[in-house]
Each structure stands twice: as structure tokens, then as C-alpha cells.
UniProtKB/TrEMBL annotation:
Residues 40-169 form the ATPase AAA-3 domain. Residues 234-305 form the ChlI/MoxR AAA lid domain. It comes from Halogeometricum borinquense. Keywords: ATP-binding, Nucleotide-binding. The keyword Nucleotide-binding applies. InterPro entries: ATPase_AAA-3 (IPR011703), CbbQ/NirQ/NorQ/GpvN (IPR050764), ChlI/MoxR_AAA_lid (IPR041628), P-loop_NTPase (IPR027417). Pfam families: AAA_3, AAA_lid_2. It comes from the Archaea. This is MoxR family ATPase. One of its GO terms (molecular function) is ATP binding.
Amino acid sequence: MDIPEASEACGSVLAEVSKAVIAEQEFLERIMLGVLSRGHVLLEDVPGTGKTLSARSVATALGLSFSRVQFTPDLLPSDVTGTNIFNEREQSFEFSEGPIFANVVLADEINRAPPKTQAALLEAMEEGQVTVDGETHELPKPFFVIATQNPVESEGTFPLPEAQIDRFVVKTSIGYPDSDGEVELLRRRVGREARSPSVGSVLSREEVMDVRLVPEDVRVDEDLLHYMADIARTTRNDRRVDVGVSPRGTQRLLEASRARAVLSGREFVTPDDVKRVSPAVLAHRLVLTPDAQVNDVAKADVVSDVLERVEVPTIE
């Protein structure tokens, strides 16, 4: 699959998902950035905005298997990864797969699970495998995690450690719809009997695998590599930032920028691609100083200030 074909395929997926999800196009594109860059997406928003519907709709449109895990304080790692069960007839242990064995896994309210269960996702998200009782089991390919967390209810939650937040390529939120969007939401509800809308399958699993390889063919000029590195280094020197963007974050910025170029149908990355993806890719990786936290400094504002300070290369 070449870049124009991949761009058209992604556009078809976004159009299909838009039939069910009332959201800004940029929000849906950010989820597709996670798909194309072979990473994972973290959605943070208040309940009832459509996070679960968005994840399920994306999985269906991509033609992939879908699994939802409701994270709770009493959830055990084996409830996610699976466990070995004794088969009396065969007199042996057999591995029973957990809900993580799906192409698209929705980790709903991930910050409600204890750290031990959250850590069970780390190997899966980074390596595409899980280890149970010393045995390694490969996860289905492609493997894509969409995690959600509720920012307004802090009781009974376990904040994600920076090491795990860094595993997500993109962190974004769907937000409330505008007036016209909310009316359209009601209009669609009136026109069907089911409470939840449905979408159709646009791609197959094999086509998704092909699409995820396409960004590797996108050209990135040397000046843009220096531009991305300068952005990451500037975050580390900002007086409001205690811990800046890690080298892993710099690589994810490159991958997301190439994915953004594919969505635009281009064979090369532009500075605008880098600027457009930077807030969603970099902001959640920053650890602010105590003074900045007391003053309610927004991480997205820090990224915006950094983008203004770093000189933009001229691409001919």
C-alpha cells in the first residue's frame, strides 16, 4: 500500500467513525495517529462524552477484534492477562487468555486499578506479549490500547506513573460537543431504536497491518530532525518543567509527524506536521515543578511556548 492509498483508507475509517461519534475531526485524527504510529492512545475526559463509543467504533471500522476491560480497585493482573487453569481430563495446565488478547483493547478508567495491575499492561504495550507463570504469550497483531481516565473523580484512583504515561504516543480528550453537535446527537438518537449507534467495517486486519507500515516510507529532512530534537531539548530547559521530554518522546514525535503526513497524503513531513502533533504527543510527558503546579500551569501551554521559541526550519 502506498501513501495516497493509505491516506484514502484512513479517510474512509474517519468518515465511518464520524457516523457514530460526534466529535471534532482533530480528536478522531489523533486516535488515527496512534494507530498509524503503532502506539497507544490515552483519553482523559469526564464521563459520558463518548470515549468508549469512540474506541469501539474505531475498532469496528478497522475490522479488528475489540475487548473492553473495566478497571477497578480489586482488579488483578491475571484478570487482564489471563491465567493457567488445570484441565482435569488432560491432567495438565492450560492457559486461558484474558481480555487483553484482542487487536484493540479498551482499558476503561485505567487509573482506578492498583499499580500492580497497571504494570501488567507495560509489557503488553511495549513488547506485544504477556508473561504468565514464566511462559510468554504473543498478543494478536496489530495490538492497540486505548486507555481512558476520569480527571474529575480522584477518590479511589491510582495516578499513572510517568513511566507508563510515557508509553502512550498520544494523550487527548474528546470534550463537550458544541450546540449544533449536541442537537445532531439527539437527532441521531431519535432516528434509531438502539441506544448506541453502530458503524461498519472499512478495512481488514491485513489492510490495517499494511497501513501501519506506510509511515516508514515518509521522508523526513535533516533540518526537521534537528527541529524535533531542539523542541525536546527546550522542554528540558524550561524553568517550569522538572522533567522534560525523554528520548523516547522525541522518537514518538517523529513517528506521529510521519503519521500526520500520511493522513494528509504527503510523502514528506513539514514543520506544520510537527507543530500540529506536538501538544498531543509531548504535553503528557512533562513533569512540572511544584511551583508550576501550584500556579496551575498547563502542560499544553508549556509546549506552545516551546514551539514559539524554537526556530522553525525552512523547507524547500
